[in-house]
Amino acid sequence: MPPINDSDRDWERFGSTDPYFAVLTAPEFHGKISGAERARFFQSGVDHIDTMFAIIREHLDPSFAPERALDFGCGVGRLLIPLAARCSDVTGMDISPSMLAEARHNCDAAGATAVRLVQSDDTLSALNGEFDFIHTYIVLQHIPVARGETIIRGLARRLAPNGIAMIQVPYTGGREGLLSKALYWTRMAVPGGRQAVNLLRGKPPGAPVMQMNPYSVTRLLDIVAAEGCHDVHIRFSEHNGARGVLLFARKHPAPIFS
Fold first, then answer.
1. Which helix (H) or strand (E) holds 248?
2. Mean pLDDT by 10-residue block, N- to C-terminus, for the chain (258 residues)?
3. For the chain, first and last CA: distance in Å?
4. pTM of this structure
5. Spatial contact of 110 and 98, defined as CB atoms under 8 Å apart
């Protein structure tokens, strides 16, 4: 029997119906955005990549200048375009064909025509070679934890020596109050619950669920350490009420023992 809620299927529904809002859940990004809203959306990607590089250069590698970069869960290409301005070889990976098609359009329109776009799976089978920079932000939370941990391990394994990964995960679910938690549980776990709650909220019965799965930070550290990433820096994050971490991990020789 298929799962009640399939995150891959739901993400393709988001990609085909409301891709920009699915990437950044702010009201102004509903539908096919244009004008000032579109400019703000893509400027947020430039600002984000600028911040990531600044943190890396301050805390891990002052001369960080990657050639090959991967954005896992690239969505519509918000971060691929600024990455392509910094790196000679950029790959975007997403589970949704509709997201990838929109990313192709956006990258080409911005002149980032050399960006490679591939569909993801849990084994990252479409990837070739190693990367100097691997990035995934507000993505893994939408994937069930067991699958997400497999993906994190695969991403860390594909880091080049001295390459750096930025892996963001939440450690809280972001839903406060018993009613909110109960409705989410009903949509996720009860047969017919998704349809019932959607109707209660005035949505189509089959409207997709945006999962919010908290991860263990300890497990995350164990995974990247096992893949040879022994130099790390952690920053806290908060997104739509969910507290999390941004883990910057460099593939580096074994830790110091005393």
1. strand 242-251
2. 68 92 92 94 98 98 97 98 97 97 97 96 96 97 95 98 97 70 63 71 74 93 96 91 94 73
3. 52
4. 0.90
5. no
